[in-house]
Specification:
The structure is a single chain. The protein contains two helices and no strands. The chain is an all-alpha fold and 61 residues long. The chain has a domain of 36 residues. Helix 1 packs antiparallel against helix 2. It is flat.
């Protein structure tokens, strides 16, 4: 039922579209440093869930 609903803001450039594929070099860099970035985000944000979201969001946006 929900898949039949279309929103006006789902046009080009909307947040509902899949992120663009990133270069392989960036993917490798992200994976190699993900733990360090998570540790830093956890230090700054103080909440594990927020740190996880921040690190994963930085990769896709």
């Amino acid at each position: 039922m929900h898949e039949d609903v279309h929103r006006a803001d789902e046009g080009p450039g909307s947040a509902t579209q899949a992120p663009l594929p990133l270069p392989l070099d960036f993917e490798a860099h992200y994976l190699m440093n993900q733990e360090a970035w998570h540790s830093y985000a956890l230090y700054r944000l103080g909440i594990n869930d927020a740190a996880e979201r921040a690190v994963h969001r930085a990769r896709c946006c």
